Amino acid sequence: MKILPTDALLVIDLQNDFCPGGSVAIGGGAIVAAQMAKAAAYFAGAGAQIYATQDWHPEEHASFRTQGGPWPPHCIENTTGAEFHPALQLPDTAIIVKKGSTPNKDAYSGFIDCNLEEQLVAAGIQRVVIGGLATDYVVLNTVIDTLDIGLETYVLADAIDAMDIEPNDGLRALHLMQTTGAHIITIAELLTGDALSPSEGRE
Ligand code: ZN
To answer: How far does the centroid of ligand 1 lie from the alpha carbon of residue 91, in Å?
Structure first.
């Protein structure tokens, strides 16, 4: 896929607490981090922008079980759990977008409780390539939101992983992204140019 200045890579919540050893661990988290590091290097090399979302909660966040929410406490601001996974090496130019800082509001999308949407619009971004965690929560909802504001949206099928609290939640989420209009591609297709975008490859 030839990367243009109006393309952006969205790296979703690749943080220690969502990876093995973390409080809401997803089995493939470390692999996803390494895969997204490759995608980030490719975008940086092409001079395109990278946005990395970071779940960033106060200690008493509404999504925590301790507060009546569904999740164990995770990604508490300024803790190791909230840091990006070490395998996710991002260029200095990457823009970090913290979300979920409001105590009584959860952020199941990279567009909620932060200014990512405003930043993408202000930068004139037209296509986004998305990977990270988790397929069935923040990746899914971010993809639905980018499609909703008219961005051509690509999901990296081998740079995401699911919570799968119910069996096959991740597969259902991927199917929903596709039927809503997202293109599903692999890291190899991103890096080699096999996944032609409509603007490049179709009539
Ligand atoms: Zn959270």
So the answer is: 24
**Residue from 102, 83, 94, 19 nearest 52 by CA:** 94
**Is the per-residue pLDDT at 113 higher than 80?**
no
For 59-72, write each residue's pLDDT tens digit. 999 999 999 999 99
**Cis preceding linkage at 134, omega within 30:** yes
8-55 pLDDT, tens per residue? 999 999 999 999 999 999 999 999 999 999 999 999 999 999 999 999
Distance 66 CA to ligand 1 centre (A): 13
8 A C-beta contact, residue 18 and residue 29: yes
- Is 112's pLDDT higher than 90? no
Residue 77 falls within a domain, yes or no? yes
10 C-alpha to ligand 1 centroid (Å): 17
d(CA 160, CA 33) in angstroms, rounded, equals: 9
119 inside domain: yes
Ligand 1 centroid vs 172 CA: distance in angstroms? 21
Q: How many structural domains is the chain composed of?
A: 1
- Under DSSP, is residue 69 helix (H, G, I), strand (E, B) or coil? coil
Identify the domain containing residue 91 by its residue range: 7-197
C-alpha 5 – ligand 1 centre gap (Å)? 31
